[in-house]
Amino acid sequence: MVITLTSGSNIQSQWKIGNTTVLSKVCTGSVREINISTTFDVPQVYNMTVIVWNSVSDPKHITSFVEVVRLVEGFDIVTNVQNNTSFGTDHGPVVYQITLDSLDRLPMGKLNFELFYNDIIVLKMELDNEHDLVSTGVMASYQSMTEGDYNVEAKISSTVDSQSFSFNLSIWNNITFPSIKSVAGINMEIFVTNYNLNTQRYQYRIVYGNGNEEHSDPDILITGRESFWSYNYTIKGTYSITIFVANPIYSYSFVKTIVIQNPVPDLSIWPNMTSYPNYFPLLENGAVFIINMTKNDLPPTSMTCTFVFETGGVGVNIDAPITFTTSLNTSHTYTTGGDKDVQVNCSNSVSSQLLTTRVFMLSKLEGFKITGHNRLYLDNSTSVDQSIAFTYTAGEFITASAAIITDTLIPLKTTLDGHSGSVVVSANELKSYPYGTYKIAIELSSQSGETQQRGVALFYEEQLAGFQVFQNDSLHLVQHDVEFDVVFASGSSPEVELLFLDTNSMVEFENGMVRHMQFDYTFTDPYIYNVISISRNAINSLVQTDLEVEVVHSVAGFLVEMQSSLINSYSTMTFIVKLDVSTRIPMGIVNLYVDFDDGTSTNMTVNDKFTQMLDSNGYQFDHFYSMQGYKNVAMRFQAEFTKQEINVTARIWDNINNVMITSDWAAEVNEVIPFNFENALRSGFEYSITFGDGTEVNNVPNVLYEEYNEPTKYHSYNSPGVYKVVFKASNP
């Protein structure tokens, strides 16, 4: 144990565990470090106090913990490798079981396990569960994927001691085998290497299936990566090859079937270079190539010939056997003319032969197009010629022609200069033909017989003039057809477009000479439409903007109520008119006609009252009734095309609840007694008076429909008594 000082001389020191002094030491001279050694009988952690002093300094104390452990011993290591010698890479990791013979060997301090392969550390772990070391052991594992021989050292160590185990271990890779050709040629060497065996040390045995075999020395492992066998067959046929390869851990055996067949023979191709350039096939016909065998001593097995043209390879299979007179014909179509190199590779599974030749192809007609628009407009009022230009980019010996296609062909003047040409068209060409659309066909032909045609649309029309659009009425209903009349002073094949709103329009077309068109359109929404009318044909177009179309709803949705359906005569009846929803508007000019059923009527325009009618109070108007009666009031809401009729019943009857008769109620026998009506209103009512003596008096006829005019009633009694007079008054 060591303590250090920054300064001091002639130091005395005392070392204590608890209160027990275990050692004292005196150091003379200048002292910077004090070393002592001692032994402990019991492994444990001690609380050590060191006291130092000299003649000029007070004692100084230092306290420290001293851990005392046992030596590292009593361990054993067992692996899952048989005899601790050989192990395969696909057997998983090598497992090391670390055990301790007794817990009495503890404590040893903090323990670590380290694993070295050829002095290179590959694993390090802490053995922190000491009880598992005794009971089940602690497992450590490592898998090496590299084949070879290894000096393995397993080391268990603490900070003060260690215990090691060493043994030799051979790691072996599993065996894979390279692929072998399934097909080979007669007298062609079959050459196989061991590059892909995956193991570097092995033994082998090969049986060729024809009575021959070879094998390695049974007592020696072959090492290195050299080619280890080759063989050739001299007879065509199918052979079964058996191959066995092994190392101390793994073995590999397989049977391979190999077909030995004839190789590609000597071949020739026509056209060959000796006939070039006498062969000029046309592009549209393609070039023909013929392959022949030059000798027939060894016909090929399953030969394939691949032709490589300028546009890529084309494979053609030839089934064996091929006799000397047998030839292979194939053709190819090129897209451009000129010299063309051709390669032909004929091969089967065992050999190949490359043939080359050359042909000259005549150019194909290409790039034929109309320059500019593919349409032409002819106005019958002009005699100015118009032309159509065209070009083509490739072609030889080209001629051009053009015609207007009708029931007969009308030939047109055509010129061609180099790769450009033109066609001249005059209105005079079609003077005797109806207006309309025709096709101009322009055709290019080559000397090879190839033709290409392009079309141009020819619009032969009369100019539009005097364009006007009329509507059949000034007002129209939604969901009803609106009829439009279109007139022209002149024109042919017009397309007429009416634009109502940004998203509403209609288009009508009529072919040939046209002076009048008629068509319908149904509007779904009420509106005053400012219609833009456009007429056009291939020659010109005209616009009209002064057409206004007013579209309204049908008259509907009116409701009629009365503030009170029963009033007295000579009173005012209030009628309330309502409109159910605002979407009924517009309806055009709406007039209200009212027959009050009293000999009077009225009419009014109600458009300015729609706002009131939509309100909950409605639009109100009054009528004064004088005479009593049931009045069937007829109301008609009338617009230009539609109407709505509503009938309501007004009841004009006086309230007679307070009407009564009065009298003196006492008289002498045979005295004339007057009976007077009180509280009567202005119109008549029906009544009866019974005087109690069997006498009754009633109203005159039609009293209900006249003003009240009842005189006093008189009655006399011819015998004394008390009489009950009953008065009854009524109206409907």
From TrEMBL:
The places in or outside the cell where this protein is found are: Membrane
One Gene Ontology cellular component term attached to this UniProt record is:
plasma membrane
Which keywords does this Swiss-Prot/TrEMBL entry list? Membrane, Repeat, Transmembrane, Transmembrane helix
All residue ranges annotated as the PKD domain in the record? 656-732
Predominant subcellular localization, coarse grouping: membrane
In the record, biological process GO terms are: calcium ion transport
Q: What is this protein called?
A: PKD domain-containing protein
Q: Which organism is it from?
A: Mytilus galloprovincialis
